[in-house]
Write a structure and sequence with these properties.
Layout lengths: L2 E2 L6 H16 L3 E4 L5 H11 L5 E3 L11 H6 L5 E7 L10 H10 L3 E6 L18 E5 L15 E5 L11 E7 L5 E8 L3 H4 L12 H38 L5 E2 L7 E5 L4 H10 L6 E2 H4 L9 E5 L6 H15 L1
Parallel strand pairs: 2-3, 2-4, 4-5, 5-6
Antiparallel strand pairs: 1-7, 6-7, 8-9, 10-11, 11-13, 12-13
Length: 327
């Protein structure tokens, strides 16, 4: 992407800010959400859309090895302002965004890509490279602790420089001072809700300066090579985990591809299994039944994540405990 701002409040509100920006750019008010977008992000969009004229067209997730790109493309029409997809998606699948971008652009809509794991971008193609117009995400996993749920920081970037003045938040630019020394200044600030109120480009755009600083320091220390090595280790451990769990009777690894997160089906209520494993001191993952309690077809699905902090002993402990609980 061409331009990134100096952070948003968090990933989910950055997602809504992108939707609002797309409506301003396209002068349209229909938002198409992928069924594979995290339900918390989708709910933030629906909540904020209650206060605008935007129509939100969502969908249920499909439990299959690859995302339903054809179904998503079929929902894009001439009234669509933007299409919102997650990359990698809620089940950990990695889709070819270029097909979606082409379909959206053909209808005059923008493609918004949501990334909840920025480490993945050290291993997979960037959303901007695949045609995304606006890229947003959650930056917590780089340099920011879990901190009992916050504060975190939202990431926000655009591919086309002509959209810069529609961006929410603040832009920092490089300049030189009176002595010719390199420095950075606040170049553009659209946080004008105290003046323009409902006409402001943003009314959520509180940034997370301290978290953004930690993120920037961590990225600087990693560098490109470090980020790629970190991503490779995440993926290696995820592959080991998937292979181990695939050997557990009753477990099926769903994904055709993944980075460090993937989905398994276990043939019984995953919420009960997660609780049973928690009693053994093992955090097994997130049950889709918890995220989608109203969809029975998702109740036996479990999303598993590994990071560089996962050990091979952790992987074996999960596999062994899951065998015992499912027996």
């Amino acid at each position: 992407c061409a331009v990134a701002n100096a952070s948003m409040y968090d990933g989910s509100t950055a997602c809504w800010e992108a939707v609002a920006m797309a409506s301003r750019v396209t002068k349209r008010d229909r938002v198409v959400l992928s069924g594979a977008l995290h339900p918390h992000y989708a709910e933030v969009v629906r909540t904020m859309a209650k206060f605008t004229s935007d129509e939100v067209a969502g969908a249920e997730p499909t439990i299959q090895p690859e995302a339903d790109i054809d179904g998503l493309i079929a929902r894009i029409d001439d009234k669509t302002s933007c299409v919102v997809v997650q990359y990698p998606d809620i089940l950990g699948r990695i889709s070819d965004l270029s097909r979606i971008a082409d379909a959206a652009h053909e209808k005059g809509a923008l493609l918004i890509a949501v990334n909840t794991e920025p480490v993945a971008l050290g291993a997979i193609k960037s959303p901007g490279e695949l045609g995304a117009d606006i890229v947003v995400g959650e930056g917590q996993s780089i340099g920011v602790g879990l901190q009992f749920g916050g504060p975190y920081l939202g990431l926000f970037a655009v591919r086309d420089k002509k959209h810069v003045r529609q961006m929410p938040g603040r832009l920092c630019g490089e300049t030189t001072d009176a002595e010719g020394k390199r420095g950075f200044v606040l170049t553009l600030s659209t946080r004008e809700q105290h003046i323009r109120r409902e006409k402001a480009t943003s009314n959520i755009c509180t940034n997370s300066g301290l978290c953004a600083l930690a993120f920037s320091v961590h990225m600087t220390l990693l560098g490109e090579k470090g980020l790629r090595r970190l991503a490779a280790e995440n993926h290696r451990l995820a592959c080991l985990t998937a292979d181990r769990l695939a050997r557990v009777p009753g477990v099926r690894v769903l994904n055709a591809n993944f980075f460090n997160e993937f989905t398994v089906t276990i043939g019984q209520d995953a919420r009960e299994v997660v609780r049973a494993l928690a009693d053994k001191g093992i955090l097994a993952g997130v049950s889709l039944g918890r995220l989608y309690p109203e969809i029975d077809a998702l109740s036996d699905a479990l999303v598993i994540a590994t990071t560089e902090t996962t050990t091979e002993e952790d992987i074996e402990a999960l596999g062994a405990a899951l065998e015992e609980v499912l027996a």
